[in-house]
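Please decode residue identities from the backbone states below.
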């Protein structure tokens, strides 16, 4: 998630890339903000509003946190 283009705060966008999912998973990520829905495709760079990029970044951070907690719990059980 790199380049930020600022127009006005409401129109600002960011160029992002979501890695391609496995064949059993959907090839897009669904994001809904204040009733407006977005389907962000995986496997290619796309330009999205800053709010969408922020939601996806937070989701990635929370997933990383989840995996770390699972790893710690598994170590405690051993």
């Amino acid at each position: 998630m790199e380049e930020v283009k600022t127009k006005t705060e409401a129109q600002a966008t960011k160029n992002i890339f979501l890695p391609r999912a496995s064949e059993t998973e959907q090839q897009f990520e669904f994001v809904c903000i204040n009733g407006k829905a977005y389907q962000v495709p995986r496997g290619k760079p796309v330009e999205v509003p800053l709010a969408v990029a922020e939601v996806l970044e937070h989701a990635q951070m929370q997933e990383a946190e989840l995996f770390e907690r699972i790893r710690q719990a598994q170590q405690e059980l051993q």
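Observation: The chain has a mean pLDDT of 89.
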